[in-house]
Specification:
The complex is a heterodimer of chains A (about 150) and B (about 140).
Chain A: E1 2-14, H1 23-30, E2 39-51, H2 63-78, E3 81-82, H3 83-86, H4 97-111, E4 120-129, E5 132-136
Parallel strand pairs in A: 1-3
Antiparallel strand pairs in A: 1-2, 2-4, 4-5
Chain B: E1 4-17, H1 26-33, E2 42-55, H2 66-81, E3 84-85, H3 99-110, E4 119-128, E5 131-135
Parallel strand pairs in B: 1-3
Antiparallel strand pairs in B: 1-2, 2-4, 4-5
The chains are: A alpha+beta (about 150), B alpha+beta (about 140).
């Protein structure tokens, strides 16, 4: 099996706010990230797929197709947007780096299987900054022992 | 439940060290450690990458509150080792302060940290841009 990783960048605004909490509680937990005017990041997305190299093409996946899906499902939806206000999943889900990784996995998992013959989504990594990133391996977490 | 997320955060500190084994002869030390055995020591800008693993709290969307994680790593690692001579730290009284041993020391120092429902999964220490060391506890 080969793991293949493709990167993409997007820039977006967000803030952290739990509607069920008081403003004071939001500021206590989320600090500066609770500013309702928002702030933003240059995110880097890394998508890793797993599969065997095709004996004829030598490809695990057709990178052009992977790139098209990453752009159609994620970059075109998130880039230069306010995540809380303009991306449906973040009306309910706080757009933390952790939740971005989960949401991007869900978006790709819906669209990728029919485009990627044989290969499987393995990992979604989202960098919020060079010094902070989240990894998600799907709800089954293949890195779990016995999972 | 959406499953487990791995959250990684990078920290920087600069320290000096000398690689030297007291029980070796001078020649053996020079042969084993080369330039790293310089009696006056030398230093690195280290990057510590801390990975925690846990469920995403449905109320906060977080594996761990970064303010809490930053405070723990800052106090226990960055302030302890940053701008210091590693050979003078009690941690390296009987071991050589290689980056391998620094990984093991940092793991021991951080593994009982209170990270809510997350736990320490992995440490990476970059000694330079060209070499880094990974450690995930003695059972891995």
């Amino acid at each position: 099996m080969i793991l293949l990783t493709r990167k993409a960048d997007f820039s977006a605004a967000h803030y952290y706010w739990n509607e069920h909490w008081s403003p004071e509680e939001n500021v206590r937990v989320f600090g500066k990230c609770a500013n309702r005017n928002g702030h933003g990041h240059n995110y880097t997305l890394e998508v890793t797929v797993a599969g065997d190299a095709d004996p004829v093409t030598g490809f695990v996946v057709d990178l052009k197709k992977l790139k098209e899906v990453m752009h159609a499902e994620v970059v075109d939806v998130y880039d230069h947007r306010h995540l809380n206000l303009e991306v449906p999943e973040f009306r309910e889900r706080i757009p933390t780096t952790e939740n971005l990784a989960i949401s991007i996995w869900e978006r790709l998992e819906r669209a990728l299987p029919e485009r990627l013959a044989g290969a499987k989504l393995h990992r979604v990594r989202v960098y919020e900054t060079d010094d902070l990133f989240a990894d998600y391996y799907g709800p089954g977490d293949p890195t779990e022992v016995g999972g | 439940m959406s499953g487990t997320v791995y959250l990684s955060r990078r920290y920087r500190f600069s320290s000096s060290h000398r690689l030297h084994v007291d029980s070796y002869s001078d020649e053996q030390n020079r042969e084993t450690f080369g330039k790293c055995n310089n009696p006056h020591g030398h230093g690195h800008n280290y990057v510590l990458e801390v990975t925690l693993r846990g469920p995403v709290d449905p109320e906060t969307g977080m594996v761990v509150n970064l303010v809490d994680l930053d405070a723990i790593v800052q106090e226990r690692i960055v302030e302890r080792f940053g701008l210091r001579n590693l050979n003078c730290d009690a941690e390296f009284a009987t071991t050589v302060p290689t980056t391998e041993n620094l990984c093991i020391a940092a793991w021991r120092i951080l593994e009982d940290g209170h990270f809510g429902s997350a736990r320490l999964e992995h440490l990476r220490i970059e000694e330079t841009a060209n070499n880094y060391f990974d450690y995930a506890g003695k059972d891995n």
